[in-house]
Specification:
This protein has two domains: about 130 residues, Aspartate Aminotransferase, domain 1 (Alpha-Beta Complex); about 230 residues, 3-Layer(aba) Sandwich (Aspartate Aminotransferase, domain 2), CATH 3.40.640. Helices cover about 35% and strands about 15% of the residues. A seven-stranded mixed sheet has the order 2-8-7-6-5-3-4, with helices on both faces. Strands 9-10-12 form a three-stranded antiparallel sheet. Helix 6 links the parallel strand 5 and strand 6. Helix 2 runs parallel beside helix 8, helix 9 packs parallel to helix 13 and helix 10 packs across helix 13. The longest helix is centred in the N-terminal third of the chain and has 21 residues. The radius of gyration is 21 Å and the shape is globular. It starts with 5 loop residues before the first strand and ends in a 5-residue tail after the last helix. About 45% of the residues are buried.
Length: about 375
C-alpha cells in the first residue's frame, strides 16, 4: 500500500476504467478511419460516434441530435457563453465560466453563495426581475472544490418562467448525481469524460432543440457544421462507454462513498482548529473540503505526497497560483484560512484501506506544519 499512490484527487481527473480502455483500443489501431470519409474504414468510425451520441443522450434523457461533442468541459462552457452579452452566474463557478464571461460582456451579475455554498433561488428571481434583458443564466450543478449541489431544477424553472436560457456546468456532477435534463429544466449542459473514468480530451455540450447555438469552430462540417475539426473518435467512444458505466447504479456507488466520507469527516473534525467548507448534506458523496488554521495548503499537499497520498487544495485548473481559492473566498473565509485548504475527492475505486492510511498520516503532518508555522499560536 505504501508504495502505491493513494489517489484522493478524482475531482481533478480519474483513471480510465478497464471497459473504456478496452473499448477505445480498436479506434487507435485498426479502426482509425476519418469519420468524414465515405469508405468502410471511415464509416466504421462514423457509426462509433453515432453510438456514443446515443449513449450520452440516454444518460442525460435527451435526443441524440441535442448532443455536441467537444474537446473538454471548458470548451463546452466557452461555447455556450461566447456570444452572450448579458449573463447571470454565481460567484464560485469554475474559471471556464468566470473567465469566459469577462470579455465582450455588457454586464455580468454574480449571485452570492453564502457560507454553505448554495445559491438561493430567491436571489436569482430578484436578479432576473432587475435585469429583464438577461440572455443566459449559468449555475454549476455541483461545485468542483467544495462539492455543494445546487437546486438546479428550481433554478431552471425560474429561468423557464422568465424565458431565459439556462445552462449548467455538470462536469463534476455526471456520474455522481442523477442527471435528467428534462426534470432539471436545463437548456444546455456541459460535461467531460475524464471526470468519470473516460479519457481526457473528450467533452459534451448538450443544447436543447430550439435553443440558438452559433458555430464555434469554422472550417468543416463536423458536429452538424457547428464545430469543425476531425473528431477524436477514440475519446468519444470512451466517453460513451464511461457515461454508461458511471450512471448505471449511482445510488449503490454513493452509499459506499458516503460510508467512507463519514469516516473521514468524523476523524478530521476531531482535530484542532479545522472546519468543513460547504454544506455537509447537499454535497457530492465523494467530496470533502477542509480548512486547517495555521498551515499552508501547498505545504500540506507536499507532505501528503511524501506519504504517497495525492490530494489537492482546490481546482486543478488553478494549480501554480499563490492566490487563495475564489470558491472559499466566496464562502466568506478570510485569506489566511482559505490558504490552508485540503480537498478530498474519492471514486468508486477508493478502498477502506486507503482511508485508513490517510487518517493515520494526516494528523501528524498537520501537527508538524503547525509547529513550523510562524502564524500558529
Amino acid at each position: 500500500m505504501n508504495n502505491q499512490t493513494i489517489y484522493f484527487d478524482n475531482a481533478a481527473t480519474t483513471k480510465v476504467s478497464d471497459a473504456v480502455l478496452e473499448g477505445i483500443l480498436p479506434y487507435l489501431k485498426g479502426e482509425y478511419g476519418n469519420p468524414s470519409s465515405l469508405y468502410r474504414l471511415g464509416q466504421e468510425s462514423r457509426r462509433a460516434i453515432t453510438k456514443a451520441r446515443e449513449q450520452v443522450a440516454a444518460a442525460l434523457n435527451c435526443a441524440p441530435g441535442e448532443i455536441y461533442f467537444t474537446g473538454s468541459g471548458s470548451e463546452s462552457n466557452n461555447w455556450i457563453l461566447h456570444d452572450k452579452k448579458k449573463v447571470i452566474t454565481s460567484e464560485f463557478e469554475h474559471h471556464a465560466v468566470l473567465h469566459a464571461i469577462k470579455s465582450g460582456r455588457e454586464k455580468t451579475i454574480l449571485l452570492p453563495v453564502y457560507g454553505n455554498g448554495i445559491v438561493k433561488v430567491a436571489d436569482l428571481e430578484k436578479a432576473l426581475a432587475e435585469n429583464p434583458d438577461t440572455e443566459l443564466v449559468s449555475v454549476m450543478t455541483a461545485n468542483n472544490e467544495i462539492g455543494t449541489i445546487q437546486p438546479i431544477a428550481e433554478i431552471g424553472a425560474v429561468c423557464r418562467k422568465a424565458g431565459v436560457t439556462f445552462h449548467t456546468d455538470a462536469v463534476q456532477a455526471v456520474g455522481n448525481v442523477e442527471i435528467d435534463v428534462q426534470s432539471m429544466n436545463t437548456d444546455a449542459l456541459s460535461l467531460s469524460a475524464h471526470k468519470f473514468h473516460g479519457t481526457k480530451g473528450a467533452g459534451v455540450l448538450y443544447v436543447k432543440k430550439g435553443v440558438k447555438l452559433p458555430p464555434y469552430i469554422f472550417g468543416g462540417a463536423q458536429e452538424r457544421g457547428r464545430r469543425a475539426g476531425t473528431e477524436n473518435v477514440a475519446g468519444i467512444v470512451g466517453l460513451g462507454i464511461a457515461i454508461e458505466e458511471a450512471t448505471r447504479d449511482i445510488a449503490a456507488k454513493n452509499k459506499a462513498l458516503l460510508q467512507k466520507r463519514k469516516r473521514i469527516y468524523n476523524a478530521v473534525m476531531k482535530m484542532e482548529k479545522v472546519r468543513l467548507n460547504g454544506d455537509l448534506e447537499n454535497r457530492l458523496a465523494n467530496n470533502l473540503n477542509f480548512s486547517f488554521e495555521g498551515i499552508e495548503g501547498e505545504a500540506l499537499l507536499l507532505q501528503l505526497d511524501l506519504k504517497n497520498i495525492a490530494a489537492s487544495s482546490g481546482s486543478a485548473c488553478t494549480s501554480g497560483s499563490l492566490d487563495p481559492s475564489h470558491v472559499l473566498l466566496a464562502l466568506g473565509l478570510p485569506h489566511e484560512i482559505a490558504h490552508g485548504s485540503l480537498r478530498i475527492s474519492m471514486s468508486r475505486y477508493t478502498t477502506d484501506e486507503e482511508v485508513d492510511v490517510f487518517l493515520k498520516e494526516l494528523p501528524p503532518i498537520v501537527d508538524k506544519l503547525r509547529v513550523m508555522s510562524p502564524i500558529w499560536r
